[in-house]
């Protein structure tokens, strides 16, 4: 980094990035767009007040370079000084043999054909013709330097003014993107039948450009976990987000790896995740969908844009395509031993159980501070036993187990579980109930759960996140999911019943369909036969290629979610929906 860009204060850093964005957006529509050629890099650098030579351009755009993003551009600007009037004057004075403040065509030609990056006679003639304003065969270089620098400064000022004046441009700069669904074809066939077909490229080819995070004032992170219930449904905690003032926001959700080996990721890292943001009205019924994560950056699912000051619900979601309840009978191998006994019959937790409990500790440590508050511990208790630990019981824990700042440490959590095992004289039955409730199988594999992490970055405010367990949470999530589909997809009426409509949301990484039965009569349900057999490299949240959905009158119902089985290959979604006769 040059001395010029060694930031002494946060204000200096903020000003630097503001100038970077202004220059970048003078060339590109959005800072998510990539620099795709050396010529574009040159234009962007010139907009930032640099005057790159061929050598400079070749340093950053090598034969192996195919693209540079906004972050790369900022790093280049940190290393390359802005051109100053004194620098230009010094360079021209070397060519001014007489020292009279003018350069003749002969002097310019001699300098540019014998020093540095040599130019052709044609290039020199073109340059001199452009700069010899008076057409007297001489270049008044002090005046040229002054005009050049002032023009650069005016360009930068104009770009900054555009950035400040245009709120939409500011949101583009932060990375907001308008929705543009992949192209697909829709056709109708026999009466009562509708067919939807779309071929999507592998995610490596259609993935969002790598995201960057603009320097932020506040960041808040939290963890959670999706659990597959016995009926196949998937649940998790919900969260309340508070933003004290209107600001640009960068939201992400991603699976949380608990692997102790960086080279071996956790088995659930391929599970798709999403985050739906709804307004938090005084009544739960007042909640409306604000936004949801559509873009993707590797395992992260991302939304960027502006949120007004206020409170919001964060509703985690996974489609269920890659997180399903596994049949216990399919688990091979011998069950892991949970309890060890010494020669003196002293009870201890096995190494495997301690590792599993340590992972559980990380899952329920929602604020990530390495300690369990009473509230965090109670999420574990409600999940495993259906009961809460009250404040009196927590005081007893404080007297018997390792605690810090009235919060349970990892060691204290181990001690608590050891006490419970000891009280049961080593019988692991209750331990297994707790482990299975947390998604573990008898091999101590986390099979029916997927831990996740949520990050909220705010450009001009400090956000706060609190976990909440709302009875209305599943209903709010379903409403938000339905709204996200109907708002992004047109309605297609099934032939033979003009009151039954299909909505198909086609994201780059997920396809979701919804059936709306708008029949007025309360007893006229619609039964829709769904056939995915013509789809290729697709998996459905239903777990079946052919199934039927029964939709009551005046009701909307999510039909299915579809994801690629192998994200590195093309996937073709070809679904035929047929209205079955009423019985």
TrEMBL record:
UniProt biased composition (Low complexity): 176-199
CDD domains the record matches: EFh
Localization in the cell: Cell projection, Cilium membrane
GO BP terms, alphabetized: positive regulation of protein localization to ciliary membrane
Signal peptide start and end residues: none
SMART domains: EFh
One Gene Ontology term, aspect cellular component: plasma membrane protein complex
Cited Pfam families: EF-hand_5 (PF13202), EF-hand_7 (PF13499)
Domain of life of the native organism: Eukaryota
Family matches, as InterPro entries: EF-hand-dom_pair, EF_Hand_1_Ca_BS, EF_hand_dom, Miro-EF-hand_domain, S100/CaBP7/8-like_CS
Keywords, alphabetical: Calcium, Cell membrane, Cell projection, Membrane, Metal-binding, Repeat
GO molecular function, one term: calcium ion binding
Topology in membrane: Peripheral membrane protein
Region (Disordered): 174-218
EF-hand domain segment(s): 83-118, 119-154, 352-387
Matches recorded under PROSITE patterns: EF_HAND_1, EF_HAND_2, S100_CABP
Annotated PANTHER family: EF-HAND CALCIUM-BINDING DOMAIN-CONTAINING PROTEIN 7
Name this polypeptide is given: EF-hand calcium-binding domain-containing protein 7
Organism per entry: Takifugu rubripes
């Amino acid at each position: 980094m040059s001395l010029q860009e060694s930031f002494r204060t946060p204000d200096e850093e903020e000003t630097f990035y503001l100038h970077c964005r202004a220059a970048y957006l003078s060339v590109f529509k959005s800072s998510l767009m990539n620099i795709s050629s050396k010529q574009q890099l040159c234009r962007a650098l010139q907009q930032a007040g640099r005057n790159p030579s061929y050598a400079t351009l070749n340093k950053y755009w090598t034969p192996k370079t195919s693209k540079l993003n906004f972050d790369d551009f900022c790093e280049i600007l940190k290393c390359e000084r802005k051109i100053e009037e004194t620098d230009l004057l010094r360079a021209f004075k070397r060519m001014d043999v007489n020292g009279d403040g003018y350069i003749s065509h002969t002097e310019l030609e001699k300098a540019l054909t014998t020093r540095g990056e040599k130019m052709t006679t044609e290039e020199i003639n073109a340059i001199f013709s452009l700069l010899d304003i008076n057409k007297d065969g001489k270049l008044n270089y002090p005046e040229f330097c002054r005009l050049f620098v002032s023009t650069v400064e005016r360009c930068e000022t104009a770009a900054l003014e555009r950035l400040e004046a245009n709120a939409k441009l500011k949101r583009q700069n932060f990375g907001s993107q308008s929705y543009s669904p992949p192209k697909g074809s829709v056709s109708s066939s026999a009466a009562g039948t509708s067919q939807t077909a779309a071929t999507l490229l592998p995610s490596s080819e259609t993935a969002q450009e790598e995201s960057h995070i603009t320097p932020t004032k506040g960041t808040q992170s939290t963890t959670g976990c999706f659990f597959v219930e016995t009926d196949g449904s998937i649940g998790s905690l919900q969260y309340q987000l508070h933003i004290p003032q209107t600001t640009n926001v960068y939201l992400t959700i991603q699976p949380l790896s608990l692997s102790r080996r960086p080279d071996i990721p956790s088995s659930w890292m391929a599970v798709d995740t999403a985050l739906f943001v709804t307004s938090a009205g005084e009544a739960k019924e007042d909640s409306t969908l604000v936004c949801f994560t559509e873009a993707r950056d590797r395992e992260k699912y991302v939304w960027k844009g502006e949120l007004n000051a206020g409170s919001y619900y964060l509703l985690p979601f996974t489609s269920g395509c890659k997180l399903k309840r596994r049949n216990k009978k399919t688990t091979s191998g011998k069950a892991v031993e949970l309890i060890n006994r010494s020669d003196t019959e002293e009870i201890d937790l096995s190494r495997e159980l301690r590792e599993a409990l340590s992972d559980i500790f990380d899952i329920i440590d929602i604020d990530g501070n390495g300690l369990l508050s009473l509230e965090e511990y109670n999420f574990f208790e409600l999940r495993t036993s259906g009961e809460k630990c009250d404040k009196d019981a927590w005081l007893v824990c404080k007297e018997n187990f390792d605690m810090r700042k009235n919060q349970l440490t990892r060691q204290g959590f181990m001690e608590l579980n050891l006490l419970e095992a000891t009280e049961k004289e080593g019988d692991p039955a209750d331990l297994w109930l707790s482990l299975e409730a947390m998604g573990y199988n008898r091999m101590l594999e986390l099979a029916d759960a997927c831990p996740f992490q949520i990050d909220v970055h705010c450009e001009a405010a400090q956000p706060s996140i609190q976990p909440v367990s709302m009875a209305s949470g599943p209903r709010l999530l379903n409403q938000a999911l339905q709204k996200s589909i109907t708002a992004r997809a047109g309605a297609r009426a099934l032939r033979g019943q003009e009151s039954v409509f299909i909505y198909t949301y086609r994201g780059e990484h997920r396809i979701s369909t919804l059936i709306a039965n708008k029949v007025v009569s309360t007893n006229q349900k619609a039964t829709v036969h769904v056939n995915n057999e013509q789809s290729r490299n697709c998996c459905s949240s239903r777990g079946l290629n052919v199934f039927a959905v029964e939709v009551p009158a005046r009701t909307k119902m999510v039909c299915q979610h579809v994801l690629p089985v192998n994200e590195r290959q093309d996937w073709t979604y070809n679904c035929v929906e047929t209205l079955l006769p009423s019985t």
